[in-house]
Design brief:
By secondary structure, the chain is α+β, with helices and mostly antiparallel strands. The chain has twelve helices and 24 strands. Strands 2, 3, 7, 9, 12 and 13 form a six-stranded antiparallel beta sheet that branches. Strands 21-20-17-22-23-24 form a six-stranded mixed beta sheet, sandwiched between helices. Strands 1, 4, 6, 8 and 10 form a five-stranded antiparallel beta sheet that branches. This is DUF58 domain-containing protein.
């Protein structure tokens, strides 16, 4: 908490006062007064001569206490000369610690003793609140506390809540300052922010991928240059070579202006958690980072979220490209959540085919189980007629841990056998997908972004799009 005597202008917002209530100090004094009455009653037996004097002192103390409490109530029941404001970041990232500042200003004539709290939404975890603050007349105080979002979407803050002591501390008045505010909680976009100033090669290295240098093997013309040893004969531009009287080669680059369509499963399986984040949040992080790499390569990215009972208007984005594409994607998915319905692969495939006719790379992100085989194979069969299809499935870390644990008893043996059978059936489904000319990415949730980018980059370099 930092203090400053310099006053700054705050937006004028009426303060809302609640009903004053007795403070702990007043409750304690009344308790002592009642105990004194019991003590005087006992003194009638042991000190009958002093009873009258003690009773007079007791009544005098009670009258003084009631009078002081009444006067303190009248002078401190309302807070009128206190202003406050909250300064929030422009947006928040899921799971990332952020600093928030409350600023209070006392423009009244008396000292204020305050307990300060904030109306923090349930989807945010806060620390260092509530806290105590003391404001001299004309003084301004700043209180900083941290926020850690644990759910995406709009976070709506109420007004700043304070508990102000009366001048003698016998009463406390609850009041509300400042304004209600709202801030968006996005997926963890800090990874994207750290990559914006980097080149494609630097971005891949930062993500743990290594690009093999190739020259002249793309499809789009890039530039003319002098012939180098190792260039293929088809790269030689004979017209330019005859004009300049030396061998000139054409250099090509990977194709641009291609479309990447993400199909994101919003079904109940994506609600499973590995660590602090759900599979759905891991899928969003992987989607955003891989989409950012594709956008930097000049490709367009689109999104189709799906599940049984899913609102078709949410999580839908036609292919977009350019610098603003990643912001459009972020704003489209920040309040998107997995539901309790099952994955509707067939419906999603039919919807995509009706809306996107151009050949694209379709990346289906889901959590596969062997019971999905019939519907999933039918859906990818429809998609592969017009598009290149990739299925990215998230492995459940808990199942991997069961297989790796040592078997110590019968229950452990049953768990191990069940986990092995589950993984065997899942592997068989992935093999069936590959047999249908579908690209498969099988990754743990925390490594999905790296696996998606590596698969996309291999496709990009191979020219299969």
């Amino acid at each position: 908490m930092t203090q400053s005597a310099a006053a700054t202008e705050m937006q004028a917002t009426p303060i809302q006062n609640g009903r004053p209530g007795p403070s702990q100090r007043l409750v304690k004094l009344l308790g002592y007064w009642c105990l004194a009455a019991l003590a005087i009653s006992s003194a009638r037996i042991w000190l009958p001569a002093a009873t009258g004097l003690l009773e007079a002192a007791w009544w005098t103390g009670g009258i003084l206490l009631i009078g002081a409490a009444l006067l303190d109530f009248l002078t401190g029941r309302r807070i009128t000369d206190l202003a406050g404001e909250r300064r929030l970041p422009g947006n928040l990232a899921l799971g990332v610690r952020n600093c928030t500042r409350l600023t209070l200003r006392n423009s009244g004539p008396r000292l204020l003793q305050l307990s300060v709290c904030d109306s923090v939404p349930q989807q945010l975890a806060s620390t260092w609140l509530p806290c105590r603050a003391q404001l001299q007349p004309g003084q301004e105080v700043s209180i900083e506390y941290t926020l850690v979002p644990h759910r995406r979407g709009s976070a709506n803050f109420g007004r700043i809540e304070i508990l102000a002591d009366s001048p003698w501390g016998l009463w406390q008045t609850r009041a509300w300052l400042g304004q209600e505010q709202s801030v968006k909680v996005y997926p963890n976009f800090l990874g994207i922010s750290s990559l914006q100033a980097l080149s494609t090669e630097q971005t891949l290295r930062r993500l743990g991928l290594h690009q093999q240098q190739r020259r002249g093997e793309g499809m789009d013309f890039r530039q003319l240059r002098e012939y180098r040893r190792g260039d293929s004969q088809r790269q030689v531009d004979w017209r330019a070579s005859s004009r300049l009287r030396k061998l000139i080669s054409r250099e090509y680059q990977d194709e641009r202006d291609q479309e990447i369509l993400y199909m994101l499963d919003c079904g109940r399986r994506m609600r499973a958690k590995d660590g602090k984040l759900s599979h759905f949040d891991h899928a969003l992080n992987g989607l955003l980072l891989s989409a950012y790499v594709a956008i930097k390569q000049g490709d367009a990215v689109g999104l189709q979220a799906f599940a049984a009972g899913h609102d078709s208007s949410g999580g839908q984005l036609p292919p977009v490209k350019g610098e603003s594409a990643i912001n459009l994607l972020l704003n489209n998915v920040y309040d998107l959540h997995s539901g309790t319905g099952s994955a509707d692969y067939s419906g999603a495939a039919q919807q995509l085919l009706s809306q996107h006719k151009r050949r694209s790379l379709v990346i289906l992100i889901t959590n596969l189980r062997d019971e999905d085989s019939e519907e999933l194979l039918a859906a990818v069969g429809l998609l592969t007629r017009s598009h290149l299809v990739m299925v990215a499935s998230l492995r459940e870390t808990a199942v991997d841990h069961l297989v790796q644990q040592r078997i110590g008893d019968f229950a452990g043996a049953v768990d191990y056998a069940a986990a092995r059978d589950f993984l065997h059936r899942r592997t068989r489904l992935l093999q069936q997908l590959q047999a249908h000319n579908v690209l498969v990415v099988d990754s743990r949730p925390e490594s999905l972004h790296q696996a998606l980018i590596e698969a996309y980059w291999c496709l990009k370099r191979s020219g299969r799009l």
